[in-house]
Amino acid sequence: MKRTLNKDIILYSDKKVKISGWLHKKRLLGGLNFITLRDRSGIVQVLVEDKKELEKLRGLQIGTVLSVKGVVVKDERAPNGAELHDVELDVIVPVDTEPPVEIDKPLSHKPENLDTLFEYRAIGLRNLQETKIFKIRANLLKYIREFLYDNDFTEINTPKIVAGAAEGGAEVFKFDYFGKEATLAQSPQLYKQIMVGVFERVFEIAPTFRAELSATTRHVSEVTMLDVEMGFINGYDDVLDMVENLVRDTLNKVYKDCSAELKSLNAPELKLNDKFPRYSIAEIHELYSKNTKIDVSNEIDLTPDEERWICEYSKKKDGCEAVFATGLPQSKMKFYHMKDTNDTAKSADLLFRGIEISTVPQREHRYEILLEQMRFAGIDPDDPGFSYYLSAFKYGLPPHGGFGFGVDRFVEKIVGLNNIKEAILFPRDINRLAP
After folding, report:
1. Burial of 374: CB neighbours in 10 Å, binned 0-12, 13-18, 19+
2. Which of 47, 72, 183, 238 has the fewest CB atoms within 10 Å, measured from its CB?
3. Residue 176 has what pLDDT?
C-alpha cells in the first residue's frame, strides 16, 4: 500500500490508508488507547483498540519508527481533522530507551536552560514547536532567493578557505593549509565585488566565521549570511532601496504563509511601511539623549541600547519596525566603502526590532582611490592576497554597492526569540563545538 502523509489523510475519509513516521506520544488509558504518529507533514492521532496491536507497543518509547494501516475517521477534535481506527501496526525501528527530553511538550528557552536545549538538539528538534522555527527559516530563505532571482541576481558560491582576512583585524580562525597559513572566511566581500565584473548582480547565502570572544545573545562564531552585490548603481540609495524591497517582500510573505506557525510561537505582530524611516546616526544620538537623559555624545556608532530604542521609537512614531541608520562616520568605514561628505561614509545600517541586521554601503570602485584607502587602513595593496581582487578594479568595475545580511538575527527577530543561537540548528559559540 502506498504511503499517505499525515496532512492528507482527511482526503480519504472512510478509506484505508497507510501512514509512516515516529511515535510521538502515547496515551494508554485502558479502555481508550491513543498514539500520535509524526511525519514530515505533522501529526496524526491513532486509536489502538485491538489488544494484539497494543501489545506491539509494550516497552517502546517515543521515537520508535512505525507504519500504521487503518481506516480514516473524521473527527474535528483530532489533528488534521481525522484519526485512524481499526489499525494494524508495523514496528520498523523499535526504541526502548527513554529520550533525554520530552519532545511532545514545549521545550524551555529560558537562558538557564539553553545548554540543555543545545546538548540534546538532535532529539529536541523533533519537538513540533522547535520544528516550526526552522520551517519558517526555510521559507524565509526561499523567499529571499525568489526575490533576488526575480531581480536578475545570479547565485554564486565563494571559497571559505582563504589566505587572509577580507576586512582586516585579528578575529579570524587560522589553521595550517598544507604548510601555509589559511583562515576561515569572515566574509565573501572581495569575491562578490570581483563577480560584479562578471554578472553585475550576485548573491550568496553561506556560513561565515568570526573568532570573536563574545558570549552575548547576538554573537556566534559561525553565522549564516546573505551577501549581495549589484553593479551600475546611480548611488547608494539604489542599494538601500534594494534591501528595503527585499526585506518588505520577504517579511510580508513569511507573515502570510507562516501565519499559523508564527501565531503558535507567539511571534510579534508585524508593523512595516513601504518606505523605511531613515535617521542619521547623529539624529539618533540626539533623540536618544533627549528622551532618555543618557549622554551618548562621545559615541561614534550606535550603542546596542540606542538600536533598541530607535526601533521602538520608529514603531510608535512611524509605524515601522525597520529603520535605516545613515551617516556612518568615516572612522568606522571599511577600506572598500565610498566616502561621503561631512566625514561620513555612503553607508547605512538596517535595524529591525532592536538589532542591526545589515550594513548597506556603496563601494569605492575607482582603482586609485581604493589603493589610497587601503594604505590609509594599514593594508598593503602589493600583498599577493589582494592582487586578484585589485585586478578586477584595474580592468574595470562599474559603480556598485551591496550588503551583508544576518540571516540568523533576522529569523530570531521574526520569531521573537531572545538569543541568536535559538534560530540556528546547531549553534557554534566560544564554548560549543558539538553537536
Report:
1. buried
2. 238
3. 94
pLDDT tens-place string over residues 327-339: 999 988 999 999 9
Contact between residue 93 and residue 5 where contact means Cβ atoms under 8 Å apart: no
Number of neighbouring beta carbons within 10 Å of residue 49: 12
User: Cell numbers of 354, please?
Assistant: 532592536
Parallel, antiparallel or unpaired: strands 180-184 and 201-209: unpaired
CA-to-CA distance for 195 and 338, rounded, in angstroms?
18
Task: For residue 212, report the phi and psi dihedrals to the nearest 5 degrees.
Answer: -90, 130
Give CA–CA dist 38/152, Å, rounded: 40
Taking the CA atoms of the chain, what radius of gyration do you get in angstroms? 26
* Sign of the Cα pseudo-torsion (275, 281, 283, 287, in order): positive
pLDDT in tens, 5-44: 999 999 999 999 999 999 999 988 767 899 999 999 999 9
3-state secondary structure the chain: CCECCHHHHHHHCCCEEEEEEEEEEEEECCCCEEEEEEECCEEEEEECCCHHHHHCCCCCCCCCEEEEEEEEEECCCCHHHEEEEEEEEEEEECCCCCCCCCCCCCCCCCHHHHHHHHHCHHHHCCCHHHHHHHHHHHHHHHHHHHHHHHCCCEECCCCCEECCCCCCCCCCCEEEECCEEEEECCCCHHHHHHHHHHHCEEEEEEEEECCCCCCCCCCCCEEEEEEEEEECCCCHHHHHHHHHHHHHHHHHHHHHHCHHHHHHCCCCCCCCCCCCCEEEHHHHHHHHHHHHCCCCCCCCCCCHHHHHHHHHHHHHHCCCCEEEEECCEHHHCCCCECECCCCEECEEEEEECCEEEEEEEEECCCHHHHHHHHHHCCCCCCCHHHHHHHHHHHCCCCCEEEEEEEHHHHHHHHHCCCCHHHHCCCCCECCECCC
Please list, in sequence order, all residues whose beta carbon lies within 8 angstroms of the beta carbon of residue 410, skipping any fewer than 6 positions away. Answer: 140, 352, 357
Q: Kind of pairing, strands 180-184 and 222-231? A: unpaired
Number of other residues whose CB lies within 10 A of the CB of residue 27: 11
Q: How many CB atoms lie within 10 A of CB 52?
A: 8
